[in-house]
Amino acid sequence: MGDNSGSKVSYFLEESIKQITLPERFTFPFYYEPHPLTRIAAAELQHYLETQTDLEHNFGLDASQDGMAIGKMFGVLVVRCPEGKLGYLSAFSGKLAGSNDHPKFVPPVFDMLEENSFFLKEVGIINSINAQIKELSSDESYQRLSQDIEQRSAESLQEIAALKKQLKSNKDSRKQLREELRSNLDEQAYAVAEAQLVKQSLYDKHQLKALTGKWEQLLDEMRTRLAQFEADIEALKNERKEKSAALQQQLFDQYVFLNKDGKSKSLHEIFSLTPFGKPPSAAGECAIPKLLQFAFGNGYEPIAMGEFWWGAAPKSEIRQHKQFYPACTGKCKPILEHMLEGMAVDENPLLYAPKENSRLEIIYEDESFVVVNKPSGLRSVPGVNVQDSVYTRLKDRLGDTEPLIIHRLDMDTSGLLVVAKTQEAHKHIQRQFLKRTVSKRYTALLSKVIEQSEGEIDLPLSADVFNRPRQLVCFTTGKKSVTRWKVVKRYDSMTRVDFWPLTGRTHQLRMHSAHELGLNAPIVGDDLYGTASERMYLHAADIEFIHPMKKEKVRFEAEVGF
Question: Are 182 and 241 contained in the same domain?
C-alpha cells in the first residue's frame, strides 16, 4: 500500500485485499464493528503516526516530549475512486500541531487558519479589543480609585455607625432626664426643659444628616470617576461580544456540507432545527464530516468508515489508545444525517429488540412488588423505537396492574430489578433509594488484571451533553459518585470484581471501571467505554431493602451467568 503522489488517497494493494468482500451498505457511524478494509486502513495510518517525524504534536505517548499532551481522534474513510480503484482517506478531528494543513490528511471543510482569512483578521481585531480591556482594567488610576472607594466606603460605614451609637446614647439619656424632670418640675418649668431637649434631638439629627451627606457626596464623586472607566471597559466588552457573535455566524455560513447528490447545507441550517438551536463549538471539525466532504467534493464513493483514538486519554473522557469509537451524537449526528442522506447505510443495531429467548425471570412477587432477573439486552423501560422492555413484559403479565418502575438497569446490564405494583410500595421503596439505604451488589468481569484487592472510587460524573448517553468525569460540575469494590477472582487477563455503588449515577460502575483514575479496566463487553462483545459482563447480583408492608429487611439474589 502506498500514497499516490499528489493525492490525498492512499490506495490498497490489490493482492492484499482481493479476498475481502466489500460491504453492501455504508457504516452506521454511531454503532459499528469496523469493516476489514477499515481495519487495514486504520493500521496503515497508525503505522504512519508511529513512524512519522514531521508532526510537532505531543500525543502524550512520549514522556520526554515537551508541551501539553493532547490525544486526537483520527478517522479513515474507505473509498472507491472514479477509475474503480479502492483506497482510503485520512483525517483528524480539530487541529493537529496547531495547523489544518498536513499532506497525509484531507483539508477541513473550511480552513479558518488560512493566511489572510477573514477569521484571522477578525480574531486579530478581537484580540486587540481584549488587549484594550486588559490595559484599562489594569490602569493604575482605575485600580487605585477602586481601592479608595472600597476603603472610604468602609470608613463611612464605621464613622456613621459610631455616630448613630452616640446619638442613641444621647436619646436614652434624654428619655431618662425627661422622666426625672416630669417628677420634679412644675408644668411651666418642664415645658422650658422639654423645649431644650427637643433642640438637642434636632441637633443630633442634623449631625447625622450632615455626616451622611458629606460621605455620600465624596463617594458619589469618586464613583462618577470610576463609572467612566467602567463605561469604557463595558463598551469594549459589548463591542467584543458583537464582533464574536458576527464572526461565529460568518463561520457557520462558511461551513457548508455536501451529500452524495451534491446538495449543500450550512451549519446554521443543519442545527437550526435541533434542540441546540445553533451549532455547538467545534461542530464540523470532527474527522468523519471532513472525510465525507472531501469524498463528495472529489468524486470518491464512500465505502466504509472508522474512527480511533490516538494518544493519552483526556482526564474527563474514557478514551483508549488505538481503540475505535463511534461518531459523537451531539456535534456529528445532525451533520451526518444530512451528509448520508440517500445513501444505503447499515441499520442501527440498537433499534432491534432482544432475542425472543431472553426470558424475564420472576425472582419474587407479592401484592406490593415484583423482583425480576433482567436479561442482558432487554431495556428497563420502552425506548423510542423499541417497545420490548421489563415494563411492557410485566404489563402483559400483570393485566390490570400497572408496573411502577422504581429504578433502572442499563440495557446491557443483567440482574435484579424491583418493580412496584402499588403507589404505596413505589413511594416507600423509592424513598429508600433516594436516601441511599438500599444495599446493592453487582458483579463484573473487568478487561485486565487488577493488582489491588479492594478499595473505594470517588469520581464525580456528569452527562456528556454533546455525546449522550456517555458520561464525563468532572470535578467542578459533576455529581458525587462513590463505589466500593473488591476482587473476587483473578484470571490470566481479566478480573472478577464485586461492586457496591454507594451512589446511583448513570453509568457509574462502567465509568469507575474504565477511567484511568478509577480501576482503568473497562468492563468486558462495554461498547461505550471499552470493547464490544456478545454482551456486557455486568450483573446486578444482590439487593436488600425494607419491605413496604412488613417493615422488615428483605434480600434477593440472582446467580451470575458468567
Answer: yes
Whether 372 contacts 394, CB under 8 Å: yes
Please report how the helices 187-254 and 140-184 are oriented relative to each other, as an axis angle in degrees rounded to 10: 160
- What sign does the CA torsion over 261, 267, 269, 272 have? positive
Of the candidates 30, 33, 26, the residue with the CA atom closest to the CA atom of residue 531: 33
| Within a domain: 313 | yes
Least confident interval from 1-15, 216-230, 259-273: 1-15
How, if at all, do strands 553-557 and 454-458 pair? Answer: unpaired
Kindly report the number of other CB atoms within 10 A of residue 389's CB atom: 23
**Tens-place pLDDT, residues 314-333:** 889 999 999 999 999 889 99
When pLDDT is cut at 50, 70 and 90, the band that residue 386 belongs to is: confident
Q: How far, in Å, CA of 44 to CA of 296, rounded?
A: 23
Are residues 436 and 531 located together in one domain of the fold? yes
Q: Is 75 exposed, middle or buried (0-12, 13-18, 19+ CB in 10 A)?
A: buried
Integer angstrom CA distances of residue 185 from 170, 171, 198, 457: 21, 20, 17, 83
In a domain, 210, yes or no: yes
How many domains would you assign to the chain?
A: 3
Is 388 among the domain residues?
yes
What are the grid coordinates assigned to 226, written together? 470610576
Active site (annotated) includes residue 410: yes
Same domain, 150 and 225: yes
Q: Dihedrals φ, ψ of 324, to 5°?
A: -80, 145
Q: What is the dihedral of CA 371, 377, 378, 384, to 10 degrees?
A: 150
Cβ-Cβ contacts under 8 Å for 278 (sequence gap 6 or more): 252, 268, 271, 272
Range of the domain at 540: 352-557
pTM for the whole structure: 0.76
Burial class (CB in 10 A: 0-12, 13-18, 19+), 464: middle
The SS3 call for residue 381 is coil
Residues 384 and 483 in one domain: yes
The single residue of 388, 410, 526, 527 carrying the catalytic annotation is 410
